[in-house]
Every structure is written in C-alpha cells, then in structure tokens.
Amino acid sequence: MRVAMIGTGYVGLVSGACFADFGHEVVCVDKDASKVEMLKSGGIPIYEPGLDLLVERNVREGRLSFTQDLTDAVRTADAVFIAVGTPSRRGDGYADLSYVYAAAKEVAEVMDGYTVVVTKSTVPVGTGDEVERIIRETRPDADFAVVSNPEFLREGAAIDDFKRPDRVVVGTNDDRARTLMRELYRPLFLNETPIVFTARRTSELIKYAANAFLAMKITFINEIADLCEHVGANVQEVAKGVGLDNRIGGKFLHAGPGYGGSCFPKDTLALTRTAQDAGSPLRLIETVVEVNDARKRAMADKVIAACGGDVKGKTIAVLGVTFKPNTDDMREAPSLEIIPALQKAGATIRAFDPAGTVEAEKLLSNVEFVSGPYFCAEGADALVIITEWNEFRALDLPRLKATMKAPVLVDLRNIYTHDQAGNAGFEYTSVGRPHG
Ligand code: NAD
C-alpha cells in the first residue's frame, strides 16, 4: 500500500517508519525544510531510541522517503495520514486545529482516485466532520473517506508502542476505508492486536478520554503523596498496595512533580473545553488540570524549603529537564515552571540533561548547561532531580556530595531512598515519603 504521512514530527516520523517496516511504501511530508533536509541526508531531527536504525533500514530498502512537497506523495497514495501538531490555542485552551485544516485543504487539492484521509493527530470530537467538509468544499468531485485513527504511542518507547500496541482504534462508517485500514495494520491484526472499529466521533473521544484518565491517575497519586507527607505514610508503598488490585493496576501511580509533555496538558485542557461547549462539563478533569498546574509551582517551593527557606545567591544543580526520560521533548516540562521559579527566588541554575539541552536552551534563560551530573553538582548548594533518566539512578552519591557546597538532595522522582541518601551524608527530600 502507498501511504503519505503529512507531518514528520514525533508521531508522523515514527508512524511513517513503522508502516514502512510493515512493508508499505511511505512518503513522509513536512513543511519544515530543515527537518526534511536532515532526514534526506540521513539525520534524525528528534531523539527517539531505535528510530535512526529503523529509518535508515527502510530508506535503504526503498520503502521510506521524505519530501517537502506533498503533491506526488498524495496523488499516488491509498491512505493519507494527517499527523500535524494540535497545540493548545494560546489564551483559551482549545485545540488549535489550523494545521490540521490547512493540511486537509492541501491534500484535497491534489488527491486523485479513492483516497482514505486519516486523522492521526489528536483532534476534538467533530474535527473529522470538518475535515470532510473542507475536502468536499475544495474538491466536490473527490472520492474519499475521512477516518479517525488516534495514536497512543509514548515518546521514549514509541517504536515498540507502535508495533506492539494494546489496541488500534479506527473510527469510520465507510466499508472501503475499514478494509483499507485493516490491510494497513495487517501485521498487527495477525498478531491479534485488538482493532477497535467505531464511529468517527467515538474514536476521536476515545483518545481524549484515555489521556484524561491517565492524567487523572497521575494527579491522584500526586495528591495522595501530599497527604502522605502530612500523615507520615509512604506513597510508594501506598501505590504498590493499591496498584496490585487488578481493577486499578500499578502503572501511572508514580508520584512526582506533575505531568507535562506534548499531550496530557493540552489534551486535558481541550477536553474540558469540548465538554463545556457540549453543556456537559467534566468537573473531574477541570480539577486535574488545576491541581497539576499548581503542583509544578509547589515543587519549586519544596526545593526552597529543602534549602532552608531561602535560595537567594545559591547555586542549584538540576539533573534532567525533559518532561520524561528518553526524549528531547521539552513541551510543558515541569522544569519549565520549576527552574524559573527558583531563579525568581534568587537562585543560579546549572543543569544537565542527556538529550534535552538543545531544546531546553531555547526555552530557559540564564541556565548554564554542563556535560555531566558530577560536573553539574560541583560547588552547588543543592542537587535537584527533576527527570528520572536511567543514568541518574545509580549515581555515586558520596562522590557527588564531596564536591557540593551543601549536602542537599531533592529527588522529585523518588529514585533514591532515605537510607541511600542518608548514608552518603545527604539531607534528603523526596515526594510523599517523609521518613524513608
Ligand atoms: P510535532 O510538532 O512533533 O510534529 C508536527 C509536524 O507537522 C511538524 O514537523 C510540522 O512542521 C509539521 N506540519 C505542520 N503542518 C504541516 C503541513 N501542512 N504539511 C506538512 N507538515 C506540516 O507533533 P507530534 O508530537 O508528532 O504530534 C502530532 C499529533 O499527534 C498531535 O495532535 C499530538 O497531540 C498527537 N500525538 C502526539 C504524541 C506524542 O507523544 N508526541 C502521541 C500521541 C498523539
């Protein structure tokens, strides 16, 4: 099958490369000339484990290519995926659909023969109807179907998630489109991956409901962590005792500095807007959004408290600035709230991140980025772990402490224990574990 992937970001590039690996012929299109040039010359514009090898192999075997011009790719495609960004609209929290609609119009102008236009971007309920209307208006003669096929991959584990998903969701009432989608996902179908066929609006809502539930689960355990600190309980043990109940499950029960990233913040907000507009507000999710926003700010206060109530003139070493490990993605990362709040309180920040420095430098000012965790800690008044990269999990704590000015360790991901830190001579603060 021939696939055109419009938008070659985290989702488009991974999906495109994986479809090529399934044996389809994929052309990835992006408006960003520098991205396309880089891909054409063998580079990968994002950090995603395993993606370089997957792209290289499929390019070499002639199934994957890149272009800035969608005309040829769309004209010959059986399926055209729209995988462009749907960020929060500044000011009101609605999903900004301008990229999706612009892509739909461009696709409509050049499509030829029966074409399935698939919305892979996360889009509010009813967007498929509008995409269909735009295509119909642009090309009244066109033979096409608009399908919703939301993506559930996680950055950092994206290839595995795409190739071994818990389920694939396809929203359409068009029989021809359903057959084509089944064929596209054939390798997964053969693996007995559940493929959930629904109406388009239902499929669009599944994606938001899933993300809102996960964001709620994280926020739930974060509030339980706060309670643990007040009543002398250990949140990790609470999470374990709760999560072993199969009806609940242990995933997404790790207390931390609040969720961030390119999806949860914007998707929870957009869902609350959809619900308000429909006259059926989601008060639970509105509260999740509020609690999570407040939490990121509260984490800076936690660091200040660990430093004795004042960080003026102090140097704080930060390990990890991306919103989670194994990505260079900085969108809505907790560090973007915590670091400026510490700077505002008078601290100087030195930071290290294994992959996020280039992106972080665009978004944070007056931060000195250094090349490793030990160098980062040298002479610092406190060390703060914001992102739990694997390489931070087994640091030589005595060595770190020996070079620091004050022995303060704030572990916002609970990757150490009170005993480990205490034995190394640190005053240790974590999340929801007041006594170890
Ligand atoms: P991204 O910002 O990394 O990539 C979007 C790309 O689309 C950019 O490279 C941009 O240049 C390109 N683009 C925009 N308009 C275009 C056009 N008209 N023609 C060609 N290219 C165009 O975004 P992303 O993180 O890949 O997210 C894409 C969508 O997938 C969003 O709706 C997001 O919510 C959803 N999603 C993301 C993830 C994730 O982990 N990042 C997971 C699931 C779903």
Automatic annotation (TrEMBL):
<dbReference type="InterPro" id="IPR001732">
    <property type="entry name" value="UDP-Glc/GDP-Man_DH_N"/>
</dbReference>
<feature type="binding site">
    <location>
        <position position="324"/>
    </location>
    <ligand>
        <name>substrate</name>
    </ligand>
</feature>
<feature type="binding site">
    <location>
        <position position="35"/>
    </location>
    <ligand>
        <name>NAD(+)</name>
    </ligand>
</feature>
<comment type="similarity">
    <text>Belongs to the UDP-glucose/GDP-mannose dehydrogenase family.</text>
</comment>
<dbReference type="Pfam" id="PF03720">
    <property type="entry name" value="UDPG_MGDP_dh_C"/>
</dbReference>
<dbReference type="Pfam" id="PF00984">
    <property type="entry name" value="UDPG_MGDP_dh"/>
</dbReference>
<dbReference type="InterPro" id="IPR008927">
    <property type="entry name" value="6-PGluconate_DH-like_C_sf"/>
</dbReference>
<feature type="binding site">
    <location>
        <position position="86"/>
    </location>
    <ligand>
        <name>NAD(+)</name>
    </ligand>
</feature>
<feature type="binding site">
    <location>
        <position position="155"/>
    </location>
    <ligand>
        <name>NAD(+)</name>
    </ligand>
</feature>
<feature type="domain" description="UDP-glucose/GDP-mannose dehydrogenase C-terminal">
    <location>
        <begin position="317"/>
        <end position="418"/>
    </location>
</feature>
<feature type="binding site">
    <location>
        <position position="122"/>
    </location>
    <ligand>
        <name>NAD(+)</name>
    </ligand>
</feature>
<dbReference type="InterPro" id="IPR014027">
    <property type="entry name" value="UDP-Glc/GDP-Man_DH_C"/>
</dbReference>
<dbReference type="InterPro" id="IPR014026">
    <property type="entry name" value="UDP-Glc/GDP-Man_DH_dimer"/>
</dbReference>
<dbReference type="InterPro" id="IPR036291">
    <property type="entry name" value="NAD(P)-bd_dom_sf"/>
</dbReference>
<dbReference type="InterPro" id="IPR017476">
    <property type="entry name" value="UDP-Glc/GDP-Man"/>
</dbReference>
<dbReference type="InterPro" id="IPR028357">
    <property type="entry name" value="UDPglc_DH_bac"/>
</dbReference>
<feature type="active site" description="Nucleophile">
    <location>
        <position position="263"/>
    </location>
</feature>
<feature type="binding site">
    <location>
        <position position="331"/>
    </location>
    <ligand>
        <name>NAD(+)</name>
    </ligand>
</feature>
<comment type="pathway">
    <text>Nucleotide-sugar biosynthesis; UDP-alpha-D-glucuronate biosynthesis; UDP-alpha-D-glucuronate from UDP-alpha-D-glucose: step 1/1.</text>
</comment>
<dbReference type="GO" id="GO:0003979">
    <property type="term" value="F:UDP-glucose 6-dehydrogenase activity"/>
</dbReference>
<feature type="binding site">
    <location>
        <position position="207"/>
    </location>
    <ligand>
        <name>substrate</name>
    </ligand>
</feature>
<dbReference type="InterPro" id="IPR036220">
    <property type="entry name" value="UDP-Glc/GDP-Man_DH_C_sf"/>
</dbReference>
<feature type="binding site">
    <location>
        <begin position="252"/>
        <end position="256"/>
    </location>
    <ligand>
        <name>substrate</name>
    </ligand>
</feature>
<dbReference type="GO" id="GO:0051287">
    <property type="term" value="F:NAD binding"/>
</dbReference>
<dbReference type="Pfam" id="PF03721">
    <property type="entry name" value="UDPG_MGDP_dh_N"/>
</dbReference>
<keyword id="KW-0560">Oxidoreductase</keyword>
<protein>
    <recommendedName>
        <fullName>UDP-glucose 6-dehydrogenase</fullName>
        <ecNumber>1.1.1.22</ecNumber>
    </recommendedName>
</protein>
<feature type="binding site">
    <location>
        <position position="30"/>
    </location>
    <ligand>
        <name>NAD(+)</name>
    </ligand>
</feature>
<feature type="binding site">
    <location>
        <position position="260"/>
    </location>
    <ligand>
        <name>substrate</name>
    </ligand>
</feature>
<feature type="binding site">
    <location>
        <begin position="152"/>
        <end position="155"/>
    </location>
    <ligand>
        <name>substrate</name>
    </ligand>
</feature>
<keyword id="KW-0520">NAD</keyword>
<dbReference type="GO" id="GO:0000271">
    <property type="term" value="P:polysaccharide biosynthetic process"/>
</dbReference>
<feature type="binding site">
    <location>
        <position position="266"/>
    </location>
    <ligand>
        <name>NAD(+)</name>
    </ligand>
</feature>
